[in-house]
Amino acid sequence: MALPVPAAAQERLGSVTIKKLPTSLDSPGAHPVKFELSGGNLTTPVTLYSDSDTVRFGDLTPGTYTIRELATRTGDVARATVAPITATIPKGDSYDVTVYPKTQPLALRKSADVRKVTPGSKFRYTLDGTVPLPDTNGQLHRYVFRDALPAGVTLTGKSSAQLRIGSRTVPLSAGEHYNVTTRDDSIITATFTQAGLELLAQERKEHADVILRFTFGVRASSDLVGGSQVLNIGHLYPDGYPEDGEESVVSNEHVLPVADSSGLIIPVPIPIPAGSSGSSGSSTLLTPGSVGETPEIMPAATPDTPEAPGSPEQPEPRNPLASTGASVLGMLALGTLLSIIGITLFLRGRRA
């Protein structure tokens, strides 16, 4: 005869509540939301949709679960999505786990294959962009790189693109997956075709860590001055960011110091602003997209060995020569004063 199992001995069930916070990247707002839960003792993933910003998965046994956001946007609009995360329901009690997942913002990173440039040399710039989640129809509508080079740098005409998914690399073909246009040898634009967007969407639906890399060659002008800097910023136009609009995904400001022909970086003297003490001319302001002058920046002095916390301060050694000199001067002053007093008393005595 089977005995009933006490309630305390039964496995407690828990729940996972997911609340998505709004960001400035969401053109229509933070809701509706749609999340997929997998793992634990689930045999198939469970999907929940909500017109608000919150969903709740209930009746979950203890275990570790994976949370993934699914698309709710349709069309050419921007929407920040949540990076896949995990949530654990512990054993022993009924737990209601609430998660505030961190959004995965669109980002663009600018880099170069050199750490400094010399006048007349060639080098390569690289733009690494994240890829947004495709819309409810599994589509991406736009992906455009654009870079306006600073004065003193021109294009050499060679470029390439590839997808990077973890350790895997997928090469892309110019003319098939993307088209490159240039203007005045200083502005380069890479626009992805329909075939390229379909490939991006397919990879992004399965992998949240897709990076699109675009690399192009440039040449530094022979007129660049050693000690100056080359500053550059790239732009990305994905879904929700029209090319002719005011907004874009902006890269970091990339800085390359200019060395002289010997490879040395000699800082240009700091110009004195007009109107200040000792000024007789105008100053040059170094701005993004220009080649200008830069002051020498001296690193802060740091001790060779760190001082132990709480150790007493050591008194500085005294200079014996300085001490001796001070003593001699004091004795001379005292002798002079005593001589004046003695002479004064002697003269008064004679008068008396």
UniProtKB/TrEMBL annotation:
Biased composition (Low complexity): 276-292
Keyword terms of this UniProt record: Membrane, Transmembrane, Transmembrane helix
TM spans (from-to): 328-347
Domain of life: Bacteria
Keyword Protein transport: no
Keyword Transferase appears in the UniProt entry: no
Protein name: Isopeptide-forming domain-containing fimbrial protein
Signal peptide residue numbers: none
Region entry Disordered, spans: 276-323
Cited InterPro entries: Fim_isopep_form_D2_dom
